[in-house]
Amino acid sequence: xxxxxxxxxxxxxPRERTRLLDNLGRLRREVGPITPELSDALADHMRLRHGDVxxxxxxxxxxxxxxxxxxxxxxxxxDSRGGREQLGAGAIEVxxxxxxxxxxxxxxxxxxxxxxxxxxxxxxxxxxxxxDETLADYERRGGLxxxxxxxxxxxxxxxxxxxGLSGYGGAGFPTWRKWEAVAAEAGPRYVIVNADEGExxxxxxxxxxxxxxxxxxxxxxxxxxxLGAMEAYTYIYIREEYATARARLTAAIEEFRAAGLLEGLxxxxxxxxxxxxxxxETAMLExxxxxxxxxxxxxxxxxxxxxxxxxxxxxxxxxxxxxxAILRNGGDWWAGLGSPATGSPGVRLWSVTGAVARPGCYEAxxxxxxxxxxxxxxxxxxxxxxxxxxxxxASGILPPAALDVPLxxxxxxxxxxxxxxAAVQVFPKSYAPLRLLAExxxxxxxxxxxxxxxxxxxxxxxxxxxxELEHGRAAMSRRQVEEWLDAxxxxxxxxxxxxxxxxxxxxxxxxxxxxAPLGPATLGEPASA
Amino acid sequence: MIGSNTTEAHPVLALRIKKAVRKGATLVVADPxxxxxxxxxxxxxQLRPGSDVWLLNAIMHTILEEGLHDEAYVRExxxxxxxxREVVARYPPEEGERWTGVPAEAIRATAREYATERxxxxxxTLGITxxxxxxxxxxxxxxxxxxxxxxxxxxxxxxxxxxxNNVQGLNDSGANPTYLPGYQPVDDPVVRAKxxxxxxxxxxxxxxxxxxxxxxxxxxxxxxxxxxxxENPGHTEPNAHHVAEGxxxxxxxxxxxxxLSDTAERYADVVLPASSFAEKDGTFTNTERRVNRVRAAVxxxxxxRGDRQIVLDLARELGCDWPEYPDAESVWNELxxxxxxxxxxxxxxxxxxxxxxxxxxLEDEGSRFLHEKTTARPSGRGKFHPVEYQPPIEEPDAxxxxxxxxxxxxxxxxxxxxxxxxxxxxxxxxxxFFEISAEDASSLGVLDGDWVRLVSRxxxxxxxxxxSARVFPGLVWMALHFAEAKVNWLTHDVGDPLIGTPEYKxxxxxxxxL
Amino acid sequence: xxxxxxxxxxxxxQEDELLVHAAARxxxxxxxxxxxxxxxxxxxxxxxVVGVEGSSRPLxxxxxxxxxxxxxxxxSNVPQLRKTLTEMLLSEHLNANPGGRPNELVDLARELGAEAPLVxxxxxxxxxxxxxRLMGYExxxxxxxxxxxxxxxxxxxxxxxxxxxxxxxxxxxPTWERSWLDTECELCGxxxxxxxxxxIYEKFLEGAGxxxxxxEQTKTTCTFCGVGCQIDLNVDPETKRIVKVTSKPEYxxxxxxxxVKGRFSFNFVHxxxxxxxxxxxxxxxxxxxxxxxxxLAAAADGLKGVIRRHSAQAIGxxxxxxxxxxxxxxxQKLARIGLGTNSVHSCEAT
Lengths: 529, 514, 350
What we know:
The complex is a heterotrimer of chains A (529), B (514) and C (350).
Chain A (H helix, E strand, L loop, with lengths): L2 H10 L7 H11 L5 H11 L3 H10 L10 E4 L2 H5 L11 E3 L11 E3 L2 E2 L22 H6 L4 H4 L4 H11 L11 H10 L4 E7 L8 H8 L1 H16 L3 E7 L4 H16 L7 E6 L9 H8 L23 E5 H13 L1 H5 L11 E8 L5 E6 L4 H7 L8 E5 L19 H6 L8 E6 L4 H15 L5 H18 L7 H14 L3 H5 L1 H10 L19
Parallel strand pairs in A: 1-2, 5-6, 5-8, 6-7, 9-12
Antiparallel strand pairs in A: 1-3, 3-4, 9-10, 11-12
Helix pairs in contact in A: 2-3, 3-4, 8-9, 10-11, 10-12, 11-12, 11-14, 18-19, 19-20
Chain B lengths: L5 H4 L1 H12 L5 E3 L12 E3 L6 H14 L5 H7 E2 L1 H8 L4 H8 L3 H13 L5 E3 L1 H4 L4 H15 L9 E3 L6 H6 L6 E2 L3 E2 L3 H11 L11 H7 L7 E5 L3 H4 L3 H9 L3 E6 L4 H6 L2 E4 L8 E4 L4 E5 L12 H11 L10 H11 L16 E2 L25 E2 L18 E6 L15 H4 L6 E4 L1 H7 L6 E5 L4 E8 L7 E5 L27 E7 L1
Parallel strand pairs in B: 1-2, 3-14, 4-5, 8-9, 9-10, 15-19, 16-18
Antiparallel strand pairs in B: 6-7, 11-12, 12-13, 15-20, 16-19, 17-18, 17-20
Helix pairs in contact in B: 3-6, 3-7, 3-9, 6-7
Chain C lengths: L1 E5 L2 E5 L5 H7 L23 E4 L6 E2 L10 E3 L4 H13 L13 H9 L22 E3 L9 H10 L4 E4 L6 E4 L15 H5 L5 E3 L13 E6 L8 E7 L4 E6 L13 H5 L14 E3 L5 E3 L2 H18 L5 E4 L6 H15 L4 E2 L5
Parallel strand pairs in C: 1-5, 15-16
Antiparallel strand pairs in C: 1-2, 3-4, 3-5, 6-9, 7-8, 10-11, 11-12, 13-14
Helix pairs in contact in C: 2-3
C-alpha cells in the first residue's frame, strides 16, 4: 500500500457517513483494493468504527478486488451461451452485467470486451434510436422546455394519472400515486433515481442512460422541481458495472450545470459496488446512508420515511424517462400508445435477449403478445425455444406454449408469472429448465443480504435441491419444499425472498416430470401474497 | 461529565450515557484527556489538569452575564449567592481560555446549554476530587448546580460516581473519624450518648485521625500500630516510597486480606486470611445510594474466615462483650436501628432489588433523588461557597517538564490484586504503560511500546510508552494498577487542606529514554 | 391502553407497544430469536411473524407496534411457518452446544417438533480460533441473528464484531477477522450474553461438558465499582467453584449488562495465592503459618501492647470499600469501643 498516496487521497474525502460507499469506491480506484488497513484508515478519517467500514466493504462484491479485474457474466443468458467458459484465472464471476444482448459478456476493467453495439428502435416516448451527444442535441429534440417552464405539481400528477404510467423497475406501483404521496409529506424531500439495474436479463435502463442521458437528467430535475420546493436533493444510484452510463450521465450533468439549469438543485451520482439487492429501494437507502444494503422493514415506506428519514421519491430510470414525453404530449396521448388488443396503456422498454435473431432493447406497447415482441422487434426466434423468462429472474418461467400470451399482468398471472422488469429471456431447448432453475436459485442465494431466515437459507436449499435433481436425487421431499416456498413467500422481508419461489412453482407446474424424485405434490393451495 | 472516565471506571453506567446520547441527549465532556466518551460528545472541553475551578467559574460567569441563572430558585432555596457573583465576575471565559486551554466560545456554549436545559445533570468522579483543591472543585460544581436550580427532580443534580463497590456504604456505615454510622457527628454529645447506650461502652470523644493524618502519623510518631482490612496503602497511597518508610517504623501491623500484599509481606506482624465477596453475606451500597444484597456462593478456602467472624473473634480476644451477631442481617439490623435514614431498609425488603436511602420507615419506598423539597442542610437552603482558582501544588518546571496525571483503566482494579491474576485479562493489558502525545514522543525519540523511565522528585519507575491522541503535549498519564511500577512512587502527598484527599491527578515528572 | 383482538379474543395493550410484548401481556407467547429488548427492532429471524388483518403477509411481532382495533392471529398458518423457519435454521446448525450455554433454537425445535430435513452443503463455516482466553466462538452454532453485532454497535457502541460478507459466505467475525484482543473490543462479553444459541461462550467452559443449566446460581452484587451491578455467580455443584458470571435483563442497576471485570474476573476467588492460613511473624523476622487462636492472640496482644505503651490514639484502623456495610460497621465499632479510637478511615475517603 502506498502510504503517501493514501494520505493524499484521504485528505480529500468527505467525512459524512452518507459518503462512505463513494469514499470506498474512490479509495479502490485511486489507491487500490480495500484492505483491512485501508478500511481502518478510512474509518479513522470518517470517525466511524472500524467494524462499520468492514461490514460495508465486505457486503459488496467489488471493493476488495482491483479495478482492472476481469469480470465474467454468469447470468442465465450468458450461462446459456457459454459464459462460464470465459472464466480464466483471477476472473471474477458476476451474476449479471446488464449487457445480455451481447452474451456472453466479459468486462475487462470497465471495458466490455468486444465493444458495445446497440439494438433498439425509435419509440414515440423515448426515441432511443437517436443518441444525444450533447445538451444541444437534446434541446433540438424538444428537451428542456418543461424545465424552463415548469408545470404545477397538480397538473403533473393529473397527467401521470391519465397516462397510466407505473413503475418499470419491477413492482409496478402507479407513478402518480408515489408523486402525490411524497408531495403530501412535509419537506425537505429527496428524489432518488434507481439506476441499480441488476435484474438478470434487464438492459433497458442502461440504454436510456447511454443513449439519452440528458432526458434522464431533465426528468430527474422535473421531479426535483415539482417536489423539492425550497430544497431539492437529488441522487442517481447507479451500479458500478455501468461505466459508460456513468460517464455519459456525469457529462450530461456537467452540461446542465454549465447551462445554469441546476441552480437551486443538487444532482449527484452515487456509485454502487456490486450488490443486486441494492436495487431494492430500502436496501438502496441503507447503502446510500453508508450501511450494508440490507432492506428495511416496511411499513413505513420511503415516500414517508426514506433517505435520512425524510420523504423520498424513488423512481426507476426508465419510469422517470417517460415523464417528459407524457408531460409534453399529455397523459392521454401516452396512454394511447398502448396495445389496443389488451387495453394496456402506454409503452415500455422490453429487453429481449437469448435465442432471438436481434437481441436488444425495444420500446413497444404494454400488453404486446410475446410472439409479436420477438418476431416484430427481435427478428424472431433462433432455433427451438425452451424455457422463456418474461420479466427477470423472479418473474417466473414460461414454457414455449406461452408464446401467444399477451404480456400483461393479468394474462401472466394465469401462468403464475409476472411482467417484472420486462426482461424477456429466451432459452434454447438445449438449456435444461433444471439448469435454469438451479442457476436462478444460486443467483438469489448469492445475492441474498442474509438478514432474514427464509431468504438466507431457503434460496440456498432450493439451489441445492435443483442441483441434486439434475442428478435425479431428492434433497428434500416435495411437501417440505412446498412448505419452505410458502415460508419464503410469506415471511421474507423484501421482494427477493418473496418472489424467488415463483420460478420453482412455475417449474413444478410446467415440467412436473423433473420433480418426480421429490415425491407427490401436496394438495394444498400454494400460498399467495 | 467532568473528571470521569466513565467507560473505563464505571463501564456499565457508561452504557446508560451512551444510550441517552443515542436517544438525543447532549453530552459535554470536560477532561484533560480525549477519553472514549469524547467520541460521542457534542463537545470536549480539554482542560489543563487542575484548572477546573477556572473553567467552572468562567461557565458561571457566562450564565450570570447572560442572565441564565434560576433567579427564583436562588432566592427561595439558597444563601450567599452574592459572594459567588462577585468572585465569578472576575473569571471571564476569554481569560479562562488562557488558564484552562478551553476555547472561550466552548465555555460559553456549554454554559448556555447547561443552564437552559431543564434536565441537565452533572456527573463527576476522581478527576474532580483528587486534587489539593478537591473541595474547591466540588463547591464550584455545587455553585453551578444551585445557581441553575438543577436539583431536586429527576435527571438533574450533582452526581458523584463512586469509584469502588462500597465506598458509599463504607462511609454510610461509619468507617470515618468524623461520623458515626449514618453521618451522625461524633463530636455531637447527643449522638455519642445514643451510640454509647446502644453499645454499652462510652464512645471516645477525642477526634480521630483522617487517612492522611494517619499516614503522616507514621512519620511523626503519632501512629504506632495499624490494623489494615483489605487495604494496601503501600500501593495506593501517594508518595509510596515515603509511605513504605513510615510503615517500617510501626510497632505493630495487622493485615486482614485475601492475598498477601507486598505491604503485609514486609511489615505485617499478623496476617489474617479473610473472605472475598463471593464467600460472604451482607450488603454493598452503590453510587446511587442503593443498598444491594451480597450473598455467599462458595465456601471459604482453607482456614480463611469471613471478615465479620474475624472482627468478632478479635473483639472477643480484646475483651469486648458484644452480642452474638450470628449473621450479617443481625449486624445490619443494629445499624438500621441506630440510623434514621436507613431505618426502613431490612433484608426482607432487599430480596429482588435494593433500596435507595433515605428510607425512613418500612413503608418508605426509598429515594430516587435527593433535595426534592429542600436541600439537605439544616437551614434548608443551599449554600454558595465562593471559590478562587488555586494552581496545583506541583507544576512542571525545567527539571520535571511533564504533568503526570493518574487513574484507572477498564481492565484492572486498583492495585491489581484480583485482576492481575486473571490470565484472560492480562492478555489484554499486563505491562505498565503510560500515555504520551505523538508530539512529545517524537521529540524524545520514543516509539510506541518503548520502555521509558518516569522520574519525579519522589521516585522513578519504568513503563512502556503508549503514543496516544488522548493526551496533549506536556501531559502524560499512567494507571495505578502495576505492582512493579507503582505510579504512587511518583505522586506527591500534599492533599486537600480540608479533607486530605491526595492530589493524584497532578504531579511533575521527567522522562528518560532507556 | 388500547384495545385489539388477539386470536379472536379481546386484548389490551399500551399505545405503541411492540406486538411481541402485547401478546405476552395477554398470555400468548410469541417465540423470538433475533429480538432483544436492549436493541432496536430488527425483524430478521422471522420466527415471531403473526397474522395481522389487512396485511397481505404476516408481520414480525418484534418490530410491529400495536394499534387500536388491530386484529392479530397466531393461529392459522403461523405455527407451520414457525416450524418451517426452525427447520431452515437447523439445516445449517452443525454444532448445538460448543460451550455449555443455553441454546434457544434447540429448545424451540424441541417444542415445535422441528427437525432439519437436510444439511445445507455450504453449512460448514470456516472455524474461528482466537487467542483470547475469555470468549470462544463457534461459527457453526451461529444463526446470523446479528444480536451480538448489534449489541456492540447499539449498546457498547464500539467496534468488536462485524456481520461480514453477503450470500452464503456471510458470517459474524471479530472485525476484519482479527483477534478479539486486537479490535476495539472491551471484552465485556455482552455479545455472548445476548447470543441465543451459545455460539459465543465463556472459554472457561469449553469442552468441560458443564451446562449452564446445571449450575447453581447465587445472585449477588459485583465487587468492582460503584455501579452495583447485580450478578449471578454460577457455581459448579461438584467442585463448588465459580465457573462463570452471568446477569439478567431484569436486574435493576445494570439491566443484565456487565463489564470485563464483572463478567470475567472471578478466578481470583479460587486463586492458589489466596491466603488460607493465619500468619504470624516469628523471631526470625519471617511470616509463619499459625492457628487462629495463636494469630488472634498475637493480634490482640500487639494492639493492646501499643495501647499500653502509647494510647489508643496511636492505632489507626483502615477499613475498606471492598467490605460489606456490616463488616465496616463492625470494624468501626471495634475501633471505637474495642480499641478506643475514632481513627477509623480508609483510602476510599474521597
